[in-house]
Amino acid sequence: MPEDNRGNPDIKKHGFKTDRDKPLTEYIHLRVTKEMKEEIKNKDNPPEFCREAIQEKLDKDREK
After folding, report:
1. Domain span at residue 57?
2. Dihedral pair phi/psi, residue 45, rounded to 5°
3. pTM, whole model, 2 decimals?
């Protein structure tokens, strides 16, 4: 079987480390428009931008 050469090999050896209260263990996939993708890609930290936006909406919905 061929070796998987994708990703960061150090993560595979040593595990993913984070200083967050809760580790990021889950993965979601969603579709966006081309324009949304380009705007998100232009942010300083696109993954964190998306996490914060989702959390803000979840918090807002919880207040209702």
Report:
1. 32-64
2. -135, 80
3. 0.68
